Amino acid sequence: MKEILREIGMIARALDSISNIEFKDFDLTKGQYLYLVRICENPGIIQEKVAEMIKVDRTTAARAIKKLENQGFIVKKNDDYNKKIKKLFPTVKGERVYPFLKKEGEYTDKVALAGLSPDETETMLDLLQKVRKNIEVDWEYVKKGNKREY
User: How far is Cα 135 from Cα 35, in angstroms, rounded to an integer?
Assistant: First the structure.
């Protein structure tokens, strides 16, 4: 078996490390930028959806979102119809940082995909989406307290 997932893991960790260093000036650390980007791109999203998008458990998401809220990057607002539902919105501070986060993401894409043709890039995206969908099945299964059989 090829070590594809190890390669993907190394890429993800390297990019996360770079981002944590570069976003330190904004006081964004430990992957908080991931949450802020999703909230900026989906104003009014609920916490559970953000956790699902990033593929983390609810507790991890709650901690990161609470920190973003305490730092003034986001605000929680009650849903108009169901007061139990809290929607997440970027604040002015969060909206000011977002263009930099987006620019960094575009730059990273450019660097990561350098030397690949448009067809190769599209093929890689298709294949990685298939891999992600396969993994999501197990992620959902394990998230519900089940154990995989090896």
Answer: 21
Q: What backbone torsions phi and psi does residue 50 show, to the nearest 5 degrees? A: -60, -45
Check: CB of residue 138 under 8 Å from CB of residue 148: yes
Two structure tokens written together for 102: 């987006």
- Name the pTM for this structure: 0.86
The pLDDT, as a whole number, for residue 1 is 61
Strand order in the sheet with 86-90: 45-46, 86-90, 74-78
Torsion of CA 88, 93, 99, 100, to 10 degrees: -120
Structural contact between residues 26 and 97, judged by C-beta atoms closer than 8 angstroms: yes
Q: What is the largest CA-CA distance in the chain?
A: 52
How is 84-136 classified by DSSP, letter by letter?
T-EEEEE-HHHHHHHHHHHHHHHHHHHHHTTT--HHHHHHHHHHHHHHHHHHH
- For 98-127, the pLDDT digits (tens) are 999 999 999 999 999 999 999 999 999 999
Determine contact, residues 33/74, Cβ cutoff 8 Å: no
* Of 7, 33, 8, nearest in space to 20 by CA: 33
